[in-house]
Amino acid sequence: MDVMENWRGRLAREYVPFSTWVAAAFVAAGTVVGCLAASETAGLPVLMFVVPFLCALPAMSSAWLTVTLRRFLHERWQLPALSAACAFVTMAGFALVYVIAATVARWDPSENEPSFVWPGDARAAIIGLLQEAVFYVLLPAGIGALVASISAALWLYREGRKPQAGGIEAADGTIAVAPAVEANGQTGKANREERYFWLTTALGPVIVVFPIAFLLDVLSSPGNANGRVLPLLWFVLRLYYGGTFAAAVSAVLMLTLVFKRSRWSAWPAALCVGLHAGAIFLLLFAPSEGNAETQSDLPLIGGAAGALSAAACAAIWFPDRRRQTLGDTWAEAPLRGWALARHLIVAGLVAPLIAAFAYGVFVAASPWTFPDATFIGRLRAFDPEIWAIAYRIWAVVALQALALRFLLAAVVVGPIGFIPLLFLMFLFTGSLGHSLDDYVMSTPMPISFASFFELGLPGLVAALAALYFIDRERPRRAVEVGNAAA
Fold first, then answer.
1. Sign of the dihedral defined by the CA atoms of residues 268, 274, 279, 280, in that order
2. What residue ranges in 117-226 does DSSP mark as E strands?
3. 229-257 and 418-435 are packed helices; what angle lies between their axes, rounded to 10 degrees?
4. 252 within 8 A of 276, measured Cβ to Cβ
5. CA atoms of 221 and 231, how far apart (whole Å)
6. CA-CA distance, 152 to 79, in Å (whole number)?
7. Which pTM does this prediction carry?
8. Backbone Cα Rg of the chain
């Protein structure tokens, strides 16, 4: 086949936005038909925009997965089948993630009765679970596969009608780029993308919500300005507790899915990405004890806050990608293997596990750790839910330590920079645990230096572990990026 007629290259450049828009249009049309068939026309104008907006990120992810697997396509007619399979897996994955998040949010081992009681008729229970699985997982996945296959067929139809012209493409579907341009632009683009990721992680949780909360607080109580500073600070820390990983995941998804966009045109996609990240991670990071009755409101609140924050961060810091497309080798090199997602794995899994192990050894070896009804006392008694909350705190602290390391690298260079960084992480861990005081405990927890120190010490271990595991990979990553540029 002639290189001018390589349809895989055009698939990489054009399919993600085309499939996303077509899927949104089909979902909007299906919403209108469903509402009219059910005689529910009161909320039709709202649903016409909200439902496609909710489906934009799954459609974008499915199209990205299809483009990533384009090397397995030998003929054009195979594209609808591959697109349908990718959409089925993507939609089922999104449904399962929401189910897991809701299950974690409702988990409360302190209840007298278990959350799930197996009925006497096991056959009826199994049938009920299968019906829920079909309705909440398989049915959305099947609808997504149908819409994706139709989108792929429409793209092939459009390809068959338009004249074959365009830029020169390589045999594997990537665009040939001059080596000089590739080598010169590689480091700068990677730095801008990393800067966007860390600034979104550090400031994203509060960049929109904190000013709105401050204005609402001032308007609701204009005559009581003296007592608002400390509650707002605790509110900021609680937002960090629930929103740090949501902001980081939103940034990773934006850098993975959004190409050929400028800073000012990327924020609509960030709205769709931040909506799902905020809804899922606020559920995962909100402890159920003390606020189980408000769990149903968390996806709505977290989704709205996540969407606004992600859009604001994209409009301010998103790198200019107008000359990049998904098929460009030099555009994919800094993110090959989801390099930035490795920070989420280290901070969300490795570092808090090490901190939990270190604190468990400390409790087992210390003869003066007496359990009581406070947060620290229940942590000493190895209360499962309090340990789950502490694990999430240590994960947030580890991710924020990596963010501060990147932001302070230009100011403080060398081993001396670790001293203020670790001191800030120690203070952040202790204050973050105490900010959850009334949110978790039925009675206020007394704040003492001993409890502050005891919660801050494993947070310090988590920060050290995250910095160690990330820094030991920096030379290897530098070599890989250099090889990609060469």
1. positive
2. none
3. 110
4. no
5. 13
6. 6
7. 0.85
8. 25
| Rounded Cα distance, 212 and 208, in Å | 6
How many other C-beta atoms lie within 10 A of the C-beta of residue 336? 11
User: Tokens 């003066």 map to which residue?
Assistant: 368
Q: Which amino acid is at 421?
A: L
Q: Are 281 and 242 in contact (CB under 8 A)?
A: yes
Nearest CA-CA partner of 240 in 465, 392, 463:
392
Instruction: Report the amino acid identity of residue 220.
Output: S
In angstroms, the CA 343 to CA 332 distance is 18
Q: For 143-293, where are the E strands, in sequence order? A: none
Q: How far is CA 64 from the centre of its chain?
A: 16
pLDDT in tens, the chain (486 residues): 333 347 778 888 889 989 999 999 998 888 888 877 777 766 677 677 788 888 999 999 999 999 988 888 888 888 999 999 999 999 999 999 998 888 887 776 655 545 555 555 666 667 777 777 777 888 889 999 999 999 999 998 888 776 654 444 444 444 444 343 444 455 666 788 888 999 999 999 999 988 888 887 777 766 655 556 677 777 888 888 889 999 999 999 998 888 888 888 899 999 999 999 999 998 888 776 555 556 677 888 899 999 999 999 999 999 888 877 776 655 554 444 467 788 999 999 999 999 999 999 999 888 777 887 778 888 888 888 788 889 999 999 999 999 988 888 766 656 666 778 888 888 888 888 777 765 566 565 666 777 888 888 999 999 999 999 988 766 555 555 455 444
